[in-house]
Amino acid sequence: MWVKLENVVVANAFWITERANPYFVLQRRLGHGTKGFSSLLVGTIDSVFDTKPLPFRILHQISNSDTTYIIAASSSFAEILKDWEYIENHLMPTLTNFENDADVTDFIKYVISSVSKFIKLFSMPEEEKLVNYYYCSYFKGSFPRQGWLCISINHLCFYSNIFGNEIKIITKWIDVKDFFLHQKHHLEIDDPRFFPNSIRVITRTKKYLFSMFLRAVEVYSLMEQLANLAMKSLISDEKQHLLTIDNEQNNKPKYSCGASKKIEIT
Predict the structure, then answer these.
(1) Is residue 9 domain-shared with residue 115, that is, in the same domain?
(2) Do 134 and 101 share a structural domain?
(3) Phi–psi pair at 177, nearest 5 degrees
(4) In the prediction, which pLDDT does 262 show?
(5) Could you give phi then psi for residue 184, rounded to 5 degrees?
(6) pLDDT tens digits for 222-258?
(7) Residue 257 within a domain
(8) In what order do the strands lie in the sheet with 207-211?
(9) pLDDT higher than threshold 60 for residue 147
(10) Which of 87-101, 135-149, 176-190 has the lowest mean pLDDT?
(11) Which residues belong to any copy of the GRAM domain (predicted)?
(12) Number of folded domains that form the chain
């Protein structure tokens, strides 16, 4: 769960490092999940000072610097590990392009703030991960509406608010039509003669046209990747469901059609 960036004075007191890279550290509270003196000591200290922090957290820290920020916290290792994987897959490749540490920290603050706003704006669950967002226009009828296209792991969203006229679009990747079924790609780059740098998204019930991207090919590639990933996950879940039903049927007791039961009359 992402949290508002806060400065941590003592980063390693009563914490154990589980993962680390040049800009981030994943830590576990000392004594959590174990029994013994360390667990009792830390538990007592937390009770006395009424702190009781969540047992897992991710810190942003820079080498040769005493400044450290907490950016995520969770009660479970599985949940915090998802945040860590998001950092490894989506933040780290970008951070390596910055020339100084100050720009790295500013970018991280901006990204975490954007993720929090995305979750609040579109009423998403805390575990939903924002992959990227792009400034573009949505064509409602023949009029473009400028706004932000937000691409997350499971959703495609768009938001625009011009002079109080609000437009909010939320669609799941699994609702984007599969191109194999319809004999064409479900995400199509439109003819640039009509809508330069545009992408049309076709769902089960609606069609959306987004245009005026600065990097339309990049957006299209990301959309297609996430849509295909969602479809593969859906097919895998359906196969697992059918396999479970088949196993339940095979485990049911079988009776022979010709068998008869002897009834005794007393």
Answers:
(1) yes
(2) no
(3) -65, 140
(4) 47
(5) -160, 165
(6) 888 888 888 887 777 665 655 566 566 666 665 554 5
(7) no
(8) 165-172, 155-162, 143-152, 130-140, 207-211, 199-202, 187-189
(9) yes
(10) 176-190
(11) 116-183
(12) 2
Answer whether 71's CB lies under 8 Å from 111's CB: no
Q: Are residues 65 and 83 in the same domain?
A: yes
In a domain, 55, yes or no: yes
- What pairs with residue 61 in β-bridges? 68
Helix residue ranges per DSSP H, the chain: 37-49, 77-86, 92-95, 101-121, 179-182, 216-250
Contact residues for 221 (Cβ-Cβ < 8 A; gap 6+): none
Range of the domain at 197: 130-239
| Residues 135, 69 share a domain | no
How far is the C-alpha of 171 from the C-alpha of 180, rounded, in Å?
Answer: 20
Q: Which residues pair with 187 in a beta bridge?
A: 201
pLDDT for the residue 26? 93
Distance CA 56, CA 210 (A): 40
Structure tokens at 237: 């879940």
Q: Which residues pair with 20 in a beta bridge?
A: 25
Q: What is the pLDDT of residue 39?
A: 57
Residue that the structure tokens 């508002």 belong to: 4
33, with CB counted inside 10 A (0-12, 13-18, 19+), is exposed
> Average of pLDDT values for 74-93?
88
Measure CA 92 to chain center: 16
User: Smallest Cα–Cα separation from 77: which of 18, 3, 159, 20?
Assistant: 18
Comparing 12-16, 57-61, 152-156, the range with the smallest average pLDDT is: 12-16
Q: Is residue 196 part of a domain?
A: yes
Tokens of 215: 């990097």
Q: Give the CATH number of the domain where residue 137 resides.
A: 2.30.29.30
Burial of 9 (0-12, 13-18, 19+ CB in 10 A): exposed
